[in-house]
Amino acid sequence: MKVSIPTAVLFLHAFPLNSKMYQFQFKALEENNIPYIAVDYFGFGSRDNFPTDYSIETLTDAIVSELTNLGVKKVIPVGDSMGGYIMFDLWRRYRELIKGLVFVSTRAEADTEEGKKGRYATIERIKKEGKDFLIEFMLDAQVSPKTKEDKEKMKLLECIMSEATEEGIIKALKALAGRKDSMDILKTIDVPTLVVAGEDDKKITPPSIVKKIADGIPNAKFITIPNSAHLPPFENYREFNSILIKFLKEI
User: Fold this and answer.
1) Beta strands in the chain (DSSP E)
2) How many C-beta neighbours within 10 Å does residue 33 have?
3) Which domains does the chain have, with CATH numbers?
């Protein structure tokens, strides 16, 4: 059986979540007859762990291989946080696949030395204590005060994060620490680009950090979404969906 999908939206999730963080987008895209693909990274959601340590590039190659197998010709990636790092690599090495880009709560800079040390300290702690402390920290750091009031949504978020394996988390942290700086490629991006920040993201990617991506890309559009921090597609999905679908229909 051979299938050809001319263009699809490609959902790339944040760390330490999985593709279920985009469940509110799936419904909206289905209602608008927009094809999409959502992937899980190694050791997250339904995907097995990778046998060795890996890089962001390894992950990108695995995703591109899946797209090829599915017969997808072009994608519009929507990447939150870690998803954005994969998008930069896609642009760097597979730009013929890209029809448009939606960066969400992410940054173009590589980790600082301090940032790398922090990731490796977290790895050591996971090896000793397990992953629960990290999930607890992320549940606090990644969401807005408004989201925290919604007990049902917080429970759902915790369930999604809890599906990550400890091995998957550790290997992802190493990949994140080793990623390339992408500030230099921003000026080369010449496809329609939307850059989204959560208004209440104080701890992980404040809007001023996210805006640097839009500032570096010719004609990129920058939007902040209220009542959301690091996970706008999950936290304030109604607002996010209306912005996303308008952008998709334009391109």
Assistant:
1) 5-12, 36-39, 72-80, 101-104, 193-198, 221-225
2) 6
3) 5-250 (3.40.50.1820)
When pLDDT is averaged across residues 67-73 and rounded to a whole number, the result is 95
Reported as a single tens digit per residue, the pLDDT across 12-31 is 999 999 999 999 999 999 99
CA 16, chain centre distance (Å): 10
pLDDT at 91: 98
Task: Compute the distance between CA of residue 210 and CA of residue 178 in angstroms, rounded to an integer.
Answer: 20
In the 3-class helix/strand/coil scheme, how is 44-84 assigned residue by residue? Answer: CCCCCCCCCCCCHHHHHHHHHHHHHHHCEEEEEEEEECHHH
Instruction: Identify the pLDDT of residue 3.
Output: 73
Structure tokens of 36?
Answer: 């999409």
Averaged pLDDT for residues 143-157: 98
